[in-house]
Design a protein that fits this description.
Number of helices: 8
CATH topology of the largest domain: Thrombin, subunit H
Number of strands: 22
Structural class: alpha+beta
Strand content: 25-35%
Helix content: 10-25%
Order of helices and strands: HEEHEHEEHEEEEEEEEEHEEHEHEEHEEE
Strand order of the largest sheet: 3-4-5-8-7-6
Largest sheet: 6 strands, antiparallel, barrel
CATH superfamily of the largest domain: Trypsin-like serine proteases
Length: 382
């Protein structure tokens, strides 16, 4: 009797198992499976797996490694010690924020080696009043430096040391820099030599009204790489270790870094430095105009339609390149050689990088009509 009961139980169990298999095979695809818990409670549904999205080739799959850029660039960065004789109380206090004493005083900054034979780029404000300049390389060699030339209207200076076979940096194209790209700032902040900090390009074409000359050229690259006193004159480099700019200023309420630092773009740096090395000074080209960024008042005054960006011609200098080329007061410059002009810093940088005799094709809006004018730039002393 017990054997018969076991056989019957096995047969029933097999039948139930078979029916369950057939039911699972016949259920529609994607229908959730019900999982029943041993203890009373809510039913749990195992949803079908969600397919993984295909990887996007334009997005990085790993963190950017900035070590190769730092290794490549750091050997070309120098520490600049600019000593000032204690002879001009007002000058020393203005430059370095402290009173003069009986002993020499001065400031410190950074520089970047421009060529293997000892030319070095730094800021004008680092060395402008210095009597004795000492340059220390990354391998701790010390050299006495001479000033080759300075350009206060761009805050650049070129030094020369007696050395050969020095490491130097390849230049990046600063026109191609974009907000969001990674950059490194290298220098000697707060006397900490060979310091590397990282950040991104925050904006381009910034005008801070930092330089006092009315025709100063300001079109800074803004970054959030940490820059402090002592970084001035040092390089801003891209992820390839190429020179993208010269670190020059910070925007700060405390005198220390607060997230805003500014660098002179490399394309402008190279143009000015080459002139200083070749001629001893920057040979500037002029267009012969006074210009300003387009404002809301200008738009209303000139009855401009569908225009919110550009540079307005405020005055024309007699005999200048602009007058000869047919430019007029109240013309709105919106492009140069096909490159859009959004505001004043962009245009001043383009003109600053041009050479006397260069020809620029300006797209201007006059009485709401577009036209092209050809301007042959003249030398500043012409």
């Amino acid at each position: 009797m017990k054997i018969s009961q076991h056989i019957f139980s096995a047969a029933v169990g097999g039948l139930v198992a078979g029916l369950l298999v057939l039911w699972l095979a016949d259920r529609p695809a994607g229908q959730p499976v019900v999982q029943v818990s041993d203890a009373p409670g809510p039913l749990l549904f195992a949803e079908p797996p969600v397919p993984l999205a295909a990887p996007r080739p334009d997005l990085p799959t790993a963190a950017i490694d900035l070590r190769p850029a730092a290794r490549r660039a750091t050997p070309a960065v120098v520490h600049v010690n600019a000593q000032v004789e204690a002879r001009d109380r007002a000058t020393v206090k203005a430059l370095f924020g402290r009173e003069d004493t009986d002993s020499p005083t001065g400031g410190e900054g950074s520089g970047v080696i421009y060529s293997a034979n000892g030319y070095i780029i730094t800021n004008y404000h680092v060395v402008q009043a210095a009597d004795n300049i000492t340059v220390t390389t990354s391998d701790r060699r010390r050299f006495t430096a001479e000033v080759v030339g300075m350009e206060p209207k761009t805050d650049l200076a070129v030094l020369k040391i007696d050395a050969v076979d020095l490491p130097f940096l390849e230049f990046a194209d600063s026109d191609l820099a974009e907000p969001g790209q990674w950059v490194l700032a290298i220098g000697s902040p707060l006397k900490l030599t060979s310091t590397v900090t990282a950040g991104i390009v925050s904006a381009k074409g910034r005008n801070l009204s930092l330089l006092r000359d009315p025709d100063a050229i300001e079109s800074f690259i803004q970054t959030d790489a940490a820059v402090n006193p002592g970084n001035s004159g040092g390089p801003l480099v891209d992820t390839e270790g190429r020179l993208l700019g010269i670190n020059t200023a910070i925007a700060s309420r405390t005198g220390r870094f607060q997230g805003y630092s500014f660098a002179i773009p490399s394309d402008l740096v190279r143009r000015i430095v080459d002139d200083i090395i070749q001629y001893g000074s920057y040979r500037r080209a002029l267009m012969g105009v006074e210009i300003s960024t387009l404002t809301v008042d200008d738009i209303e005054r000139l009855d401009l339609r569908d225009r919110s960006e550009g540079v307005v011609v405020d005055a024309i200098f007699p005999g200048g390149a602009a007058e000869t080329g047919g430019l007029r007061v109240n013309d709105l410059i919106v492009a140069v050689d096909g490159r859009p002009i959004r505001d004043l810093p962009v245009l001043t940088e383009i003109i600053g990088r041009a050479r006397p005799g260069d020809r620029l094709v300006l797209t201007v809006i006059r009485e709401n009509k577009s036209r092209e004018l050809t301007i042959d730039l003249l030398p500043a002393d012409g």
